[in-house]
Amino acid sequence: MKLENSNNKSQDEEKVGVKAFDLSRLQEEVIIVPHSSEWQGWFETESAALQEVFGNDALGIEHMGSSAVENLLSKPIVDILVGLKEFSISDEQIKGLELLGFEYFGQLHEGQERLFARKRGEQSFNISIVPYAGDEWVAKTAFRDYLRAHPDIVEAYSAIKNEAIAGGNDSLLQYHKHKDEFVTNTLATALSWHEAQGR
């Protein structure tokens, strides 16, 4: 497979980053906290640095996930969505992520057009790298926008998160499994709402 973009990279450069990932490496304890107004500032600083890494390949960089929604309980981790022209990432861009302190994992799920990297520290981030305006991009932005427009759903989602932690589902995989039905149903509603908004 070849990498194709507009940054004058060689057409013979190998496409990288599409690889299987051992989910057991993501077994970490989940801590949820009230929304912090500082997270938007974290996003703005980090997104500027990511724009430098991806250059013209990045058609959009968005703050997504729970940390992007006011009044929603969240892990103290800012989720960032990077939308690229092509579902590909170069060795140079991976090195750029690593220089920013990110650990690059590649593809989490076979067949999913999403590459993943994360940074942990005083300011923690997850990055999802997806095709711009593709299914993953639309799903994640629609879900965020729907929550922002529906405070009652935000309240219900926070309750599900509290229920997960109180029930001992505090590993990352257990936590996500507990939320799965709510998230799946809400995403379906969010996508219909998003389409009706003409977005």
Q: Report the CATH C-level class.
A: Alpha Beta
Q: Helical segment tally?
A: 5
How much is the average pLDDT?
A: 89
Structural class: alpha+beta
Characteristic terms for this protein:
single chain; alpha+beta; Beta Polymerase, domain 2; 5 helices
Task: Describe this structure in a few short sentences.
Helix content is 41%, strand content 16%. It is an alpha+beta fold and 199 residues long.
Q: What this model shows, in words?
A:
With 199 residues, this protein is an alpha+beta fold. It has a single domain (23-196), classed as Beta Polymerase, domain 2, CATH 3.30.460. 41% of the residues lie in helices and 16% in strands. The chain is built from five helices and five strands; from the N terminus they run αββαβββααα. A five-stranded mixed beta sheet has the order 1-2-5-4-3, with helices on both faces. α3 (135-149) crosses α5 (172-196) and α4 (151-166) packs antiparallel against α5.
